[in-house]
Amino acid sequence: MVEELRQKLEAKTDPLRGGLAKIKLFSDISSTDLYEIEKKCRWLQFEPNEVILDRHDPSREVFFIADGLVRIMNFIGEDREVTLAEKKTGDHFGELAAIGPRERTARVIAIEKTVVGSMPRDKFLAMLLEFPQISLQLLHELAYVISSMNERVSTLSLMKPRQRVYLELLRLAVPDPRGGNVWIIEPLPNHNDIASWAGVDEVEVAAAIGTLAREKILERKNRSLLIHEREKIQSLSGM
């Protein structure tokens, strides 16, 4: 993994002018300073489902998503994947390994074609010292992540597997723009994705959705899931 990443880094060394313009961490940085920061990055492109980073990787680069979408994952035991977060254009990842003494603790994969700027650890730390406004923004983001993770872990630890699936369906659903007091999940993610977010296996997801469909609480329609009784699912989730 480390050697593959190094080869990618060497493949494209010229800075992408304007590549960091959408990165929220740099929202208070002037265009002149931002261009100087861009020069410290190497630019990489990843295809869908390609692993960008893996657990126990000793590399310390920080990554800025100029375009695309990635998923950050960990494992329960040795084989059950749990999705921790998704990061999109404007976000960053990898800063914990750069700041702290530990190796990578999560896997990061590209969900769609993704372009990232990769900054070496020493340049990242020097940048934090040079631009205190970036350091403060990073602290705000890390505080939010810790708070959100604590809340999610607490919630999931108190729920049965079936309840976690119901909670994930509620998270994904939005009001149907066509009205009718219906909520919709579109496009419907595959069972593996739902299982990953809920921390359960695919069999549990299939059983939960199947039960709700038989009881007419929801229905599958093409590549969508229509929820007719959102309050019922909310009650079943225990929320």
Number of strands: 12
Q: What is the structural class?
A: alpha+beta
Give the radius of gyration.
20 Å
Shape: elongated
Structure explained in plain terms:
The chain has about 240 residues and is α+β, with helices and mostly antiparallel strands. The chain is about 40% helix and about 25% strand. The chain folds into 2 domains: about 1-155, Jelly Rolls (Sandwich), CATH 2.60.120.10; about 160-235, Orthogonal Bundle (Arc Repressor Mutant, subunit A), CATH 1.10.10. The protein contains 9 helices and 12 strands. A hairpin with a 3-residue loop joins strand 4 and strand 5 (about 80-90).
Short description:
Helices cover 42% and strands 23% of the residues. It has 239 residues and is an alpha+beta fold. The model is unreliable at 9-15 (pLDDT under 50).
Topology:
Blueprint: H1 2-11, H2 31-38, E1 42-46, E2 51-53, E3 62-67, E4 69-76, E5 80-88, E6 92-93, H3 95-99, E7 107-110, E8 114-119, H4 121-130, H5 132-157, H6 161-172, E9 174-175, E10 183-185, H7 191-198, H8 202-214, E11 218-221, E12 224-227, H9 230-237
Antiparallel strand pairs: 1-8, 2-7, 3-6, 3-8, 4-5, 4-7, 9-10, 10-12, 11-12
